[in-house]
Every structure is written in structure tokens, then in C-alpha cells.
Amino acid sequence: MAINLDSLSPAELQALIKSAEAQMSAARQNHIKDVRTKIDSILASAGLTIVEIYPTRGRKGGAKLPKAPVAPKYRNPADASQTWSGRGKRPAWFVEALSKKGVTAETLLIAGPATKSAKKAAKKASPKKAAAKK
Fold it and tell me: What is the value of pTM for the model shown?
């Protein structure tokens, strides 16, 4: 059925647009329903789920997979139950400890400060890395 758009008033054109948009939305929803039905039947016949096929899909709100916890790297010397992984914002106890004389991030490491031999090895490795970058 052809409609002569030239003969329609602006109000009639607006009503036609709204009607067409509503029809388009309904047609799209029916199409989505049909596709879902087909996908569900294929998955059921294969004995699979959508999460097995697409592990990152099918979660509400595009939620990300939970991140594995990171082992703590620093420990509060005043309260051993307070630790920090070194990721994210520095905790208040860490900032406060660094403000004390003689305390560095290295001294707050759980393994303790590096030994002299480890420091020497790090210094020896540094010039090689600098030369490699040039």
C-alpha cells in the first residue's frame, strides 16, 4: 500500500511516524523472541548453556568476572592485621608510617627490607637495562 506523503499534513506525518515506530518496535521484539527460541532449542539439543558458549555473556549488566585477590605486599608495623597489596589508594596507616623518620615503603614490605646483596644485584642489573634502552 503506497501512501502519498505529499498530501499529508505535518500532524498526520507525525502520527504516521509514531505508528511506524511502534510497528517497528513490535516487529523487532517478535524477531528477538524468534531468534532466542531458535538459540535455546539449539543449546538444549546440544546440552549446553549460553555461558558455556560465551563465558563473558549472559551476566546481568555486563558484569565483569571477579578478580582474584592479590597477596598483601605491605604490613603495618604497629598492627600486623593491617596489610596492603600495593594496588589502589594508599591506606592511611601506610601514609602515616611513611611520614615517620627512617621509614620507607621498602621497610614496610612483608618480606622486610632487601638485603645488601639483593641491592647490589639490582644496581648491577640497572646499567644493563639502561644500555639496552639506548
Answer: 0.39
